[in-house]
């Protein structure tokens, strides 16, 4: 597999109240503008006659997300976490890193909101900057997205016909562009001639 870069725009955050784990899938946090994820481990060194001896502390993680303030249930859940101590589940999903099973590389943490800053300038949208206190060590893995989560993250091409069905099973009279096969004139693959 070729080496590729991961773009910040493709790292998106999903969250859910931990108490809702058996009731509903995680929600995409709408209109994210910034996501900061910073696991770290402090170390200390003691000088001995035989050389330095290092000790390490547990991993601590800083997690912060900024988004345009909105009326979504997950935005309100952050207030519940701060005011009532509700524990949250949080995923950072990298849309540009997918495995052979079609699952996306993700980080998972359990956290509580420790600060929720709200800016309300007269000439701009209201914004929120939410900081989380993360419990334990973040976990890495691969996650699938539900049809709703996939459509929340990105939308598909639609034709002019009426829409039937939902999510990936939707029909709408259109066909999405496929770069490898649809180049050239009128959707026909472009042909390059070679001299004989």
UniProtKB/TrEMBL annotation:
InterPro entries: Phage_69_Orf23_MTP, Phgtail_TP901_1
Protein name as it appears in the record: Phage major tail protein, TP901-1 family
Organism: Leuconostoc falkenbergense
Lineage: Bacteria, Bacillati, Bacillota, Bacilli, Lactobacillales
């Amino acid at each position: 597999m070729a080496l590729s870069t991961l773009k910040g725009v493709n790292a998106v955050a999903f969250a859910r109240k931990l108490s809702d784990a058996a009731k509903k899938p995680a929600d995409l946090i709408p209109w994210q503008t910034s996501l900061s994820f910073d696991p770290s481990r402090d170390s200390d060194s003691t000088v001995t006659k035989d050389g330095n001896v290092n000790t390490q502390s547990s991993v601590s993680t800083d997690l912060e997300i900024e988004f345009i303030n909105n009326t979504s249930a997950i935005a309100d859940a952050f207030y519940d976490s701060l005011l009532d101590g509700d524990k949250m589940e949080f995923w950072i999903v990298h849309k540009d890193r997918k495995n052979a099973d079609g699952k996306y590389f993700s980080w998972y943490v359990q956290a509580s909101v420790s600060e929720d800053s709200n800016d309300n300038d007269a000439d701009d949208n209201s914004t929120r900057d939410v900081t989380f206190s993360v419990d334990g060590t973040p976990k890495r893995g691969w996650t699938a997205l539900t049809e709703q989560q996939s459509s929340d993250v990105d939308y598909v091409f639609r034709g002019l016909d009426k829409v039937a069905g939902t999510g990936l099973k939707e029909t709408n009279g259109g066909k999405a562009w496929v770069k490898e096969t649809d180049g050239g004139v009128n959707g026909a693959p472009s042909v390059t001639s070679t001299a004989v």
